[in-house]
Amino acid sequence: MTVARDPGGFPVTRTPAGVARSARGARDLATLDARISGCYACPRLVAWREEVARVKRASFRDQDYWGRPVPGLGPADARIAVVGLAPAAHGGNRTGRVFTGDRSGDWIFAALWRAGLASQPTSTHIGDGLELTGVRIAAAVRCAPPDNAPTPEERDTCSPWLARELALLPDLRVVVVLGGFGWTALWPVLAAAGYRLPRPRPAFGHGAEVELEGPRGRLTLLGSYHVSQQNTFTGRLTEPMLDAVLARATELAGRSTGE
Predict the structure, then answer these.
(1) Which family does the UniProt entry place this protein in (predicted)?
(2) Helix (H) or strand (E) holding 244
């Protein structure tokens, strides 16, 4: 059977049902990343990401935009996952790497570097030398959304990608969730994976910590305000606040392996 491919050579998925099938059949992260990159299941997001990539921001006019869904970043042996909202229109949608090339990325990668989880404190483009150790970064929605606001339907359509990504991290022990949108998106994913969820559902908050038991043992969720400019410019989220959450994540991940 011939598999349809987009102009970048990625296998194409066009429906929510196709997303579920394609994600479920990915046997490793490399395959999953390629399938995510060829997703066309949400017409509004496809139109927006491609329009942004065509028009471009003036300061990036000489650059070729990625203009596709943005896969995760980090090794398969990660014990920590960081889940954000969605790629930025002129960040990940431009560079093709999650959180790379925007102000939010400046914050999260600098914090990961301070925590000993990143090889350098900056992330400007693919090939800049950045490597992550012990952590995988992903987004709840893989396409840049208009006004940075995915719809619930788009969140749910994208959900199987996140579910499969977390399932392909066998050593995962901690998930750091950036913002309330990701917190909401994660619960159905964990329920479907067999984790026993508390009732009522714990509310999101900075520093929130929830322990879950599931088929692969204990998993701890940690909440952090998102690294959006709205939060960082106003001081709602400070570097010490973010560092404290990541320090707790590394402590828990190390404890789970006896380190």
Answers:
(1) Belongs to the uracil-DNA glycosylase (UDG) superfamily. Type 5 (UDGb) family.
(2) helix 239-256
